[in-house]
Amino acid sequence: MIEVEQLTKRYGSTTAVRDLSFTVRPGHVTGFLGPNGAGKTTTLRMLLGLVEPSGGTAMVSGRSFRRHPRGLRHVGALLDAHDVHGGLSARAHLQALARSNRIPKGRVDEVLAEVGLTGSAARRRVRTFSLGMKQRLGIAVALLGDPPVLMFDEPLNGLDPEGVLWVRGLFRRLAYEGRTVFVSSHLMSEMENTADELIVIGRGELIAAESLVQFAARG
Ligand code: ADP
Ligand code: ADP
């Protein structure tokens, strides 16, 4: 469960997020839709405890990220500019994260297989990865801790058509397992076959929070 209440973030004279309130329920794939610059990434980063709100609260499973001791076992996220040391292999990166988050080592090869980074791909330096492979690695990081809440910032960027189908199936399965799945995009067309619920924002403010079917019927 994700609960955002009267959340605001200002950068100098820019208000990136303004008095935003919404809830994301488990068991659904919820889209986070808005044009570039609408405040999606800033909101996700506040939910992850990477950016401090100017006002309001951003809660995951009833707690702010910083106060939660479990890290990747609490919430997993694919962030747009996911910070991976390019000199490491995908496997070494995941192994380091598993160690610092007290996740069993065996989980690393499980998630590598799940995202399709097997064989030589798992051993290559990340800096040689295509955008699609980086996305797959970012998704592996999100899955690593088997968390109840997952957030994906523009996950379809750089994926080939087969990758897009795979990732949609993955999101549906995660939701079916009862997890909270929150997926950002600037394109309604991407949401149509991906999400069942929508949070729509523009200029940092809430525009709609309803089912995709209801939103699409607005005309
Ligand atoms: P989105 O993810 O929807 O494209 P962002 O959250 O990245 O939107 O950005 C929302 C607004 O906040 C934009 O106007 C952006 O320029 C601004 N912004 C985001 N991060 C920073 C920052 N670190 N410093 C200053 N302005 C920022
Ligand atoms: P390290 O032991 O390498 O410092 P951290 O857990 O601090 O490991 O995070 C390493 C990287 O993972 C950072 O780039 C951070 O932004 C990212 N990160 C941290 N928490 C999460 C999360 N819940 N989901 C996805 N990425 C995360």
Automatic annotation (TrEMBL):
- GO: which molecular function terms? ATP binding
**Regions annotated as coiled coil:** none
**Could you confirm whether the keyword Mitochondrion appears in this record?**
no
Q: Which intervals hold domain ABC transporter?
A: 2-219
The question of whether ATP-binding is a record keyword is answered with yes
**Keywords associated with the record:** ATP-binding, Nucleotide-binding, Transport
Q: Tell me the protein family, please.
A: Belongs to the ABC transporter superfamily.
**Protein's UniProt name:** ABC transporter ATP-binding protein
Q: Which residues of the full protein are shown?
A: 1 to 219 of 304
